[in-house]
UniProtKB/TrEMBL annotation:
Pathway: Energy metabolism; oxidative phosphorylation. Belongs to the CcoP / FixP family. PANTHER family: CBB3-TYPE CYTOCHROME C OXIDASE SUBUNIT FIXP. The chain crosses the membrane at residues 37-59. This is Cbb3-type cytochrome c oxidase subunit. The keyword Cell inner membrane applies.
């Protein structure tokens, strides 16, 4: 009799509803059934999902997906919209196909179209690294100034966009190779520090109080001047930066400079020539050139 009473569900005396048997600090949980209207919607949703699986593409297969009874796919709508957009752009930018970026900039109508198309292409493909306004970040060039590794002319920008920087398998890609003077054992730590101080000296920045500037100048002349020039003005043919303008891709502070000199830097940029059509590349060239640093 005691066991039977113990197994019997507890009924809440206030509501008359059985409890679940769970209890926390003297509080019991009512075993309240779900509302019938809620259960109806739930079961109807299950039936609807089964119907959706049959009518629309829904299930992945090994190499494809189920097509559904009506064969509808949003991908087809997107493809149609993209084709329509390309057709509209082709009409608007008909003159851009045979024009150079310089000619496009000289034509007010083509320039306006190129700027709109170039801004859209920049936002889709370049802003992730260079920023929405092209201001760049550490390791990513600021496209608003006039400091260029390989030049800011229309032709130079187009070349960089088409073939990228250090793209494997692309014979026309931009390549500059600075030795890792520390990692390769060419310079010792104190020598790297002396060169870094001289680089700051070239840029008109304060140097460390005990810096051996004479040593830094000699080491720079022996190891760096062949690319950067004796005065540190750089060489765009080689992609060697100008060290006198206090603008550096990775920073002009001592820590950044010693890291660059000691271990070198090898930044990369995609080759957009295989991803964007020629007209879009021209528009993007004109847009980048117009950001403020074009030469």
């Amino acid at each position: 009799m005691d066991q039977k009473n113990h197994d019997a569900p507890h009924v809440d005396p206030h509501t008359g509803i059985a409890t679940t048997g769970h209890e926390w600090d003297g509080i019991r949980e009512l075993n309240t059934p779900l509302p019938r209207w809620w259960l109806g919607i739930f079961y109807a949703s299950i039936l609807w999902s089964i119907g959706y699986w049959v009518v629309y593409p829904a299930w992945p297969l090994l190499t494809d997906t189920t097509k559904g009874v009506i064969g509808y796919a949003s991908r087809a709508d997107i493809s149609a919209d993209m084709a329509q957009l390309k057709a509209q752009r082709a009409v608007q930018a008909a003159g851009m196909a045979d024009a150079t970026p310089a000619q496009i900039k000289a034509d007010p109508t083509l320039f306006q179209i190129a700027m709109a198309q170039g801004k859209a292409a920049f936002g889709d493909n370049c802003a992730a690294c260079h920023g929405v306004g092209g201001a760049g970040a550490k390791g990513y060039p600021n496209l608003n100034d006039d400091d260029w590794l390989w030049g800011g002319s229309f032709d130079a920008i187009m070349q960089t966009l088409k073939h990228g920087i250090r793209v494997a398998g692309n014979d026309e890609t931009r390549v500059s190779q600075m030795p890792a003077f520390g990692r390769d054992g060419m310079l010792k730590r104190d020598e790297i520090n002396a060169v870094a101080n001289h680089v700051r000296e070239l840029a008109g920045l304060p140097t460390e109080p005990k810096a051996d500037l004479a040593l830094g100048r000699k080491l720079f002349a022996d190891n760096c001047a062949s690319c950067h020039g004796e005065a540190g003005k750089g060489n765009q043919e080689m992609g060697a930066p100008n060290l006198t303008d206090a603008i550096s891709l990775y920073g002009m502070d001592m820590a950044s400079l010693t890291e660059t000199i000691g271990n070198s830097r090898n930044g990369v940029m995609p080759a957009w020539g295989g991803r964007l059509d020629e007209t879009t590349l021209k528009a993007l060239t004109v847009y980048v050139h117009s950001l403020g640093g074009g030469q």
